[in-house]
Amino acid sequence: MRPLESDDPRIVGEYRLLGRLGAGGMGRVYLGRSRGGRTVAVKVVHPHLASDGEFRRRFRREIDAARRVGGTWTAPVLDADPEASTPWVATGYVAGPPLHQAVAEHGPLPEHTVRALGAGLAEALAAVHAHGLVHRDVKPSNVLLTPAGPRLIDFGIARAMDGATSLTSTGVTVGSPGYMSPEQVLGREVGPASDVFSLGAVLAHAATGAPPFPGDNSAALLYKVVHEEPELDGLTGELREAVAACLAKDVAARPAPAEIVGRLAGAAGAAGTVRTGWLPGPVLEDVSRRAVELLELETEHEPPRAEPVHAPPTEPSSALSPSPSSSPSSSPSPVGAFGPPPSYGGASTDDGTAPPRGRGRRRPALLAAAGTLLAAAVAGGLLLFPDGGGDGGRKRDDKAPDTVPEAFVGTWEGRTRTSGGVPSGTLTLTVSEGREGEEAVRMVYEITGLECRARGTVEEFSDTRLTVTERSVGDSPKMFGVEVCSEETATVTLTLAGEGRLRYESGDVAAGRPEGELVRKD
Asked: How far apart are alpha carbons 120 and 504 in whole angstroms?
């Protein structure tokens, strides 16, 4: 992502822009944030297109089409204004690398990943086609990879299949050379089977590291698409057969998306293939890095707030409890306006509504940032509390106190980092008097306004050291479509580190063994 430039707007509709994600033939795409704190991708069309009446009609149809699609494997349209002086549309932001970048940096994807990728994209296309639409630009850069599965984006040139109006001018071919279907290249009628052909080309690229129709220029690529067989070296067995079927020159010979799902995923469907470890490790690191960058960006742009007075957390009835969100002090400026942005609230829940801010501060919290986000993909969710192997506390002897020493009792708070030094957020911890086997510790882990709560059962303690077994409580909020909290447990060690300081250490390997120094808050 690049910083905003002098000619970039700061506010679009009710969205505050944070940076520029890219640009294309239709317009520029920005990273933005809603008043409720939801991170979005905002597409703003080029000014010269805004004055074109035919383009506005096409853009309006694009928005209507994309709104109808939705689904698990696509980025949803959240808001739009096709009638604005400069039309724009906001979609859910996907914090994952595009397929072409992942392949370029890390090489071909393993077969199980390609199968999950193909099944997810096929289900996305089935949703598109069920609404009488054709995507028409399925290509690696329009496929994003996340721990929860692939996401198909950019319905900018989708069109209704009723044939009432073409979205392209006479003689103009729309699509991406090397991934267009033969009928698309030849300017013939384009239907759902065209998207299937493009899907086959995308899967071949993912599995082999190269497009199935290589060439030095667009003319050579388009010729091969129409007249030559695809190059599928490196593909074998059932996966090769499925990809080859998608790339058939004969429209009628290509399988329907539902058939592709069956071939690649069987009865389990796409959701069954997107499970623990569906993405290879290096790609997971990219996902983690992007998520951490997003959290850091949020902190960087957060307006300063007064420090609240911290009281011990109350017993939660759920992971998140209602709390008012902040609102702009004045109405946001229209597209193209400049000046300081309004103040916005915390990150949103997955339905787009604003969650509570917990203790009134918005900052990256203990999800072990890169380490825990990596664990999210490894375990099919952000596993905040997997089983850990902490070294435990010293067992009490006959002279040790019967309850947790008074020096531990109270509320503590501090930032934590993984053992590799990656910032991992904020922990608020409250210790009460208790005996071995009793729940005497409560934890609140906060990340961008989302909270995970946990309780700790006392295992053993001494005058300076306390070891507890932690388990999460309450419902789990979501981030990037996956649950933040889990029902797993972890071993946590707390060590007095001097006046008013407490050393926190977790044995959670998957989360990067988070640790940090907490300070007394009461």
From this structure: 40
CATH superfamily of 1-93: Phosphorylase Kinase; domain 1 (3.30.200.20)
Least Cα distance to 341 among 22, 5, 34 occurs for 34
Please indicate whether residue 350 is annotated as part of the active site.
no
% the chain with pLDDT above 90: 36
Angle between helices 192-208 and 257-265 (to 10 degrees): 30
Q: How far apart are CA 334 and CA 193, in angstroms?
A: 41
Chosen CATH of 282-325+343-520 out of 3.40.1130, 2.60.40, 1.20.5, 2.40.128: 2.40.128
Q: Cα–Cα distance between 383 and 107 in angstroms, integer?
A: 27
Q: Could you tell me the sign of the dihedral formed by the alpha carbons of 245, 247, 253, 255, in that order?
A: positive
Q: Which of 7, 64, 79, 137 is catalytic?
A: 137
One-letter amino acid at 128 equals V
pLDDT the model gives residue 164: 32
pLDDT in tens, 450-476: 677 889 999 999 999 999 998 888 877
Looking at residue 17, its amino acid is L
Q: Which of 470, 396, 399 is nearest to 435 (CA)?
A: 396
In the predicted model, what is the mean pLDDT of the chain? 75
Beta bridge partners of 338: none
Tens of pLDDT, residue by residue over 337-377, are 322 233 223 333 333 333 333 333 222 233 333 344 444 43
What whole-number distance in Å separates Cα of residue 490 and Cα of residue 485? 13
Edge-to-edge strand list for the sheet holding 27-33: 11-12, 15-23, 27-33, 39-45, 88-92, 77-81
Count the neighbouring beta carbons within 10 Å of the beta carbon of residue 82.
18
Residue 133, pLDDT score: 84
* Domain ranges (residues) in the chain: 1-93, 95-279, 282-325+343-520
Pick the closest to residue 240 from 270, 264, 265 (CA basis): 264
Backbone angles phi, psi at 428, to 5 degrees: -110, 125
Q: Tell me if the pTM is above 0.85.
A: no
DSSP single-letter state for residue 360: T
Alpha-carbon separation of residue 251 from 11, 227, 258 (angstroms): 45, 14, 16
In CATH terms, 95-279 corresponds, of 1.10.760.10, 3.40.50.970, 1.10.510.10, 1.10.1840.10, to 1.10.510.10
Using pLDDT thresholds of 50, 70 and 90, give the confidence band for residue 156: low
